[in-house]
Amino acid sequence: MTEITLKVRPLVFHHSFNNSSLNKSGKVILPEKVLKDIMGISGDNIEFPLTFTLVKGGENIISVGVEEFSALGEYIYVPQFIMEYYWLPQESHVTIRNIQPPKGTKIELEPHKTAFIDSPAKGKKFLESYISKYYPVLQKGSTIVIHHDGNDFYINIKDSFPADIISTVDTDLVVEFSQPLDYVEPPPPSIIENMPMPRGHFVPFAGKGYRLGH
């Protein structure tokens, strides 16, 4: 297992950055020396695509894929949402740990907002395409962001199978959804609607409504 500590910079600071969608992804840019170190240790046993877990303060915060190995010096270029959500200020240090997760079979997603459930972003075709393109690895307990039609949907990886960290590449992944964090149970039926009342007793706002003009 290869570990190295690097300084954090935003993706937009990288000289070849030209894809704004990467700022809403789980992909980073690493120095070439990281690839060379792994090749020196693993030789011909390297499994691509390479994936890493970001570690801060001894805690695994999120697992990521690699867009390219072209960062200069001791820097890792990170999507803006990861820097903000996981509090990784520019020039702060983060440790990356090379991992080889198993292919995922199932994930349970917990949207932060009910709006995601009502949007086309929840659609099977779009979600499959987005995850396979921008999130080659997912980690249980982490949070990702899905960008669609100008909206950012934050989503918790509530569960993953067969392991806490899984690869989403070349696998048939079953996706299930739990209730969004902002979901509110509908109010129970009014007690007054179910209460038997004496004949002729006046009840304000009780009874059937009607439409004016009919």
Question: What labels describe this entry?
Answer:
Vcp-like ATPase, Chain A, domain 2; single chain; 17% helix; 2 domains; 214 residues; 6-stranded mixed sheet; alpha/beta; Barwin-like endoglucanases
Structural notes for this entry:
With 214 residues, the chain is an alpha/beta fold. The chain has two domains: 3-99, Barwin-like endoglucanases (Beta Barrel); 106-177, Vcp-like ATPase, Chain A, domain 2. 17% of the residues lie in helices and 36% in strands. It has helices at 32-42, 80-85, 114-117, 124-134, 191-194, and strands spanning 3-10, 27-31, 51-56, 59-71, 75-78, 93-99, 106-111, 137-139, 143-148, 151-161, 165-167, 174-177. A six-stranded mixed β-sheet has the order 2-4-3-6-1-5. Strands 9-10-7-12 form a four-stranded mixed β-sheet. The chain has a two-stranded antiparallel sheet with strand order 8-11. The longest helix is centred in the N-terminal third of the chain and has 11 residues, at 32-42. It is globular, with a radius of gyration of 24 Å.
